[in-house]
TrEMBL record:
InterPro entries: aa-tRNA-synth_Ic, Rossmann-like_a/b/a_fold, Trp-tRNA-ligase, Trp-tRNA-ligase_bac-type, Trp-tRNA_synthetase. It is found in: Cytoplasm. Catalyzes the attachment of tryptophan to tRNA(Trp). ATP binds at residues 9-11, 17-18, 145-147, 186, 194-198. HAMAP family: Trp_tRNA_synth_B (MF_00140_B). GO terms for cellular component: cytosol. Its main location: cytoplasm. This is Tryptophan--tRNA ligase. Belongs to the class-I aminoacyl-tRNA synthetase family. It comes from the Bacteria.
């Protein structure tokens, strides 16, 4: 059975981008594959969270994984820092990751722009840690959104480089995975780029947002003055709302509003109202479970412990083999 690995950084509550880009696929894949889904708390250290924030954010992700339907009896759910073998593999892979290629990574360049006062080495080697996450379980399928494509390419590069040095087919090649034709990119509500945690509170709709908050955020989304000729191309901010509708609404609803747009009869207020209601319906099954799961500390502890044991079993096997291959042999 093929192995699947994916993770989400513990940097806050999860939003629709995380859900449609990643978690929805996690839930489907757990029935068909050997799945490892983790909380990337080591990755989140690049922004220097306080100990309380770090812990709270790990909990958010764990709770929301469970609320979204990841079943700890089917998939291994664990916290990255509970598996120190990942950090060890990261160290080995770092020896063959080069400054030039790390500096060229799009996400590194974005971070340099976003946090110019904190361009730490962890940011630079972020893709190496991500490769270690994936290669530690020898995964071949990695369910992620479009923004992670380049990281997957780098993971293949680092794995192949290791293979060339030590053993030609030790690591299989991991590829980004989705059930649909293309990797998903969910736009935000600010009329510009993707939905994200760092793009501002109002840009993202969180799985835990109440219906009132969802309505408020969607109604404030950027629009324009409307089309003036039939079948006019949609400007970015309007296309974004239609793209969101495509994922949360029915095909009929989408076609209805698309038709109105093309006939210059669209009323954005109606479109946004519908979009907000459909987001509320789409997130309801998750939102309704979040509080109960969050209150059950014993259950959360049990899931995290059980997951750590299973993940470490797999990771320890890989690290033992790797140490042998590299030449760390006992006398
Ligand atoms: P992160 O925490 O930024 O996002 C987690 C997952 O959500 C997806 N995602 C989106 N998909 C579509 N549209 C969006 N607007 C959107 N925003 C976020 C991301 O593509 C991702 O799948 N580097 C990773 C975490 C990570 C990881 C790994 C993933 C660390 N190690 C190993 C896979 C395998 C990250 O920062 O994701």
């Amino acid at each position: 059975m093929e192995t699947v690995v994916s993770g989400i950084r513990s940097t806050g509550k999860l939003h629709l981008g995380n859900y449609y880009g990643a978690i929805q696929n996690f839930v489907k894949m757990q029935h068909e594959y050997n799945c490892y889904f983790f909380i990337a708390d080591l990755h989140s250290l690049t922004t220097h969270p306080t100990p309380d924030d770090l812990h709270g954010n790990v909990k958010h992700v764990l709770v929301e994984y469970l609320a979204a339907g990841i079943d700890p009896d089917r998939a291994t759910i664990y916290i990255q820092s509970d598996v120190p073998e990942i950090a060890e593999l990261y160290l080995y892979l770092n020896m063959n990751a080069y400054l030039g290629e790390l500096e060229r990574s799009t996400s590194f360049k974005d971070k340099v722009r976003a946090q110019p006062d904190n361009v730490n080495a962890g940011l630079l080697t972020y893709p190496v840690l991500m490769a270690a996450d994936i290669l530690i379980h020898k995964a071949t399928k990695v369910p992620v959104g479009k923004d992670q494509e380049q990281h997957l390419e780098m993971a293949r590069t680092f794995g192949n480089r290791f293979n060339r040095l030590y053993n030609h087919d030790y690591f299989p090649e991991p590829y980004a995975f989705t059930f649909s034709e293309n990797l998903v990119k969910i736009p935000g509500l600010d009329g510009k780029g993707k939905m994200g945690k760092s793009e501002g509170e109002a840009n993202a709709v969180y799985l835990s947002d109440t219906p009132e908050v969802i309505r408020k955020k969607v109604m404030r989304a950027v629009t324009d003055s409307g089309p003036t000729t039939e079948n006019q191309e949609k400007p970015q901010e309007i296309q974004n709302l239609f793209d969101l509708m495509k994922v949360v609404s029915t095909e009929d609803t989408y076609q209805h509003f698309d038709g109105l747009y093309n006939n210059c009869q669209i009323r954005y207020g109606d479109l946004k109202k519908q979009l907000a209601e459909d987001m509320i319906i789409a997130t309801a099954p998750i939102r309704e479970k979040i509080n109960d799961i969050a209150a059950d500390s014993a259950y959360l502890r049990q899931v995290a412990r059980h997951g750590a044991i299973k993940a470490r079993e797999s990771a320890q096997k890989t690290i033992k083999e790797i140490r042998e291959l590299i030449g760390f042999r006992s006398f």
